[in-house]
Amino acid sequence: MEVLEAVRMAVAEVCDLDVEPLELDACRELAVAFQHAAGQLRAKASVLLGKVAAHDAEGAAHWWRDELSLTGEAAGRAVRRSEGLRALPEVSEAAVDGTLSLEQAGAFVPLVGKLDEAELDDLQPLLVQGARGRTVDSIQHWVRTLIALNSERDLELEQASARDRQYWKHRVTSDGMVRGSFAFTAEDGEVVLPLVEALARRQGKEDERTAGQRRADAVVEVFAGAARWMDLPHAGGQRAQVTYVMTCDWAARLREADPARGAWTGPQTRAQMEAQLCDARLSRLLLDAEGQVASLESVNDEITIAQRRAVSARDRGCVARGCGRPPAFCDVHHLISRKDGGPTVIGNLVLLCRRHHLMWHDGRLLLPDLDVPWLRTPLDPPMTA
Are 280 and 167 in contact (CB under 8 A)? Predict the structure, then answer.
């Protein structure tokens, strides 16, 4: 094949280049040029791989793995990316002509199947233009926001999948260290990251700790504070302050409204936000038309420490049937929501663990699923999810 022979000859000529006599500026220029050219070839290879996968969906990953000595996981990712880019021809072409890297183009693949096909076709020129100069991580956050704007259910499924994959692993090693790894959902990260960031700031010029050391010390500080001030294991004290931004349109459930956003982790589902609002200290921040702060006021209808202790003593854990997670791991939930006029009184409050709390606000957990023998009168107004 003439094209293949030409590629081989060009690659051989580049590889035979003697770099020792080259000046530093020439080395830099050639290194960048070769890297861009290699990226364009990888993008073209992805186009070809996509065509192979279209004709042999089951065998493409195995073939690619064996030809390039990849792991099965890496080969599968490459095939899925190439299949996705077939539905994004303008984005794929931008990778081939060098406008985007293959990794930048591949970051848009999660949009396939989430957005309407015609809408996605119209959006591609804007995606290419907006991706220029962005990191892959930045593009992925952008894509997640687009999915949240167009399909909140997909965001809910993503969060449910993330909760199934979260973990914390640690071990005590012989060198006096505790080592491990973890993965939290974005929702839980919205609680953890602000605390770690605040405590991990450099404490003056004499603070010579690395960023990693400061974060490790911050985590220890958080646990030490919990040991000192939390009433373990029966009930927690004041809730941590967590910041979310939501628009009036979002609260009114208008379809075109921007999603609620966590300050650290991006778009949040409505069920997550309603669960947070059940058991939170609320403040109302009003902005004027120019985005300036017009007023900031507290909303006094909040669950008190005394109410939290009373509900914890009564329920003794999550009231979802078959659960019973202890109070320290539970939210205090309004049976009749605040937005429906539900009062913040002990008779309208129950303990729910975070998983069951989200299920309630998602409509997958109802009053008959709760063990609340003390509730002898019907809820008025009737309970709604």
Answer: no
